Amino acid sequence: TWGQFKFFSMDPSLSKVLTPVAIFGAKSDVKPNVVFIDDQRLFYVAGNNIIEMRVDEKSQKISATIEGSEGITAIAINREGTFLAVANRTDHGMITIYTIKTVNKEAVLKRKVNLTTEEHTAKDYISICFGNEAKTKTLISLGGPPDYFLISWSWVADKGKIEAVQMLRGTNSIYSVSINPTPPGADVVVTGNNTFRYFNLNGLSIVRQEI
User: What gap in Å lies between CA 17 and CA 22, rounded to an integer?
Assistant: First the structure.
């Protein structure tokens, strides 16, 4: 949806609705702050907005404005470019999955499902990534301190579900999670300050592997 800003004057007939047409500057503390839809289009985060940029036309469009959160902390796109995940800072953190459809060469985002849990005390997710299977409906998230919950999510229609949880409390500061990009690999790596941990997604469990 497009963000709208209303300005009111003493005379109601002079009230104006302004719709932003361009926002510049990528939010530097989002991981990552840019993801590619295809070789000519990308999404980046500016403020609480998801911006689509067309490289070939040198144009941009505000694809989504995230309301009711304290800020976007992470984004991810699946390998087919059909799902976008946006992590938001809230009381318990929330990840919103959007479907991506192309209409008149523009990406249209439609909210599909919200993923959240009250099991951890962190307000945000610091890193997220999609599973590597074709047409996957699996997402891996890494929550912030102090719990550093590593969670495997799935969803059907508009219902989200936690498949597996691994708490990494007591470790050094952790910054990111990544998954083996080659199917059918289920290898997950968590990295941070003096930290490199290797896990395997095994059904309904996240099993740490010694390396």
Answer: 16
The per-residue pLDDT for range 17-34, each reduced to its tens digit, is 666 667 777 888 899 989
DSSP-derived secondary structure for 19-77 = ---------TTSBSSEEESSSSEEEEEETTEEEEEETTTTEEEEEEE--SSS-EEEEEE
Question: Who contacts 93 (Cβ-Cβ below 8 Å, separation ≥6)?
Answer: 73, 87, 116, 120, 122, 123, 124, 125, 143, 144
Q: Taking the model in full, what pTM does it have? A: 0.84
Contact 115, 139 (CB under 8 A): yes
Residue 13, SS3? helix
Per residue in 151-202, pLDDT (tens digit) is: 999 888 788 888 888 888 766 788 899 998 776 667 899 998 888 889 988 7
Are 113 and 162 spatial neighbours (Cβ–Cβ below 8 Å)?
A: no
Supply the DSSP symbol for 14: G
Instruction: State the Cα–Cα distance between residues 186 and 130, nearest whole angstrom.
Output: 11
* Residue 12, helix vs strand vs coil: helix
Q: How many Cα atoms are found within 13 Å in the side-chain-facing hemisphere of 24?
A: 2
Contact between 45 and 51 under an 8 Å Cβ cutoff? The reply is yes
**Cα–Cα distance, 36 to 49 (Å, whole number):** 16
Long-range contacts at 99-104 (CB < 8 A, ≥ 24 apart): 100/37
